[in-house]
Design goal:
Layout: H1 5-16, E1 21-26, E2 32-38, E3 41-48, E4 51-56, E5 69-71, H2 74-86, H3 89-92, H4 100-104
Antiparallel strand pairs: 1-2, 2-3, 3-4, 4-5
Length: 111
């Protein structure tokens, strides 16, 4: 990640506004882990260079199986996060009436 902490803060606040709550960790490898919280939604952007992943509102108890969306730049991932946080179901459920959460649930129960 080539941006400074100040530049990253400015980019996030410019995209989301002042009500966004976020934390980030930059690793020695240059990889970035950015967690965003806004209006009851959660998003995570992770990556470096030209490989970025974005996931929104990951259900509790699910192991990480890869990001729901991938991008070739941090800027593209950040821009995509805002509309997905406003309606995380829309892109994942195109044409489906089952609902986003139902698609992530297993058929087993805790009986």
């Amino acid at each position: 990640m080539n941006q400074s902490r100040h530049e990253l803060d400015s980019m996030v606040r410019q995209e989301f506004g002042s009500d966004i709550v976020f934390t980030f960790t930059e690793f020695p490898s240059g990889a970035l882990d950015l967690e965003l919280r806004r209006q009851g939604h959660f998003a995570v952007i992770q990556g470096k260079d030209n490989e970025w992943g974005l996931s929104v509102d990951i259900a509790d108890g699910f192991g990480f199986t890869g990001h729901d969306h991938t991008f070739s730049s941090f800027d593209d991932a950040l821009r995509a996060a805002k509309p997905l946080m406003l309606d995380p179901r829309a892109p994942q459920d195109a044409g489906s009436t089952e609902g986003w959460l139902r698609n992530r649930l297993t058929d087993t129960t805790d009986n």
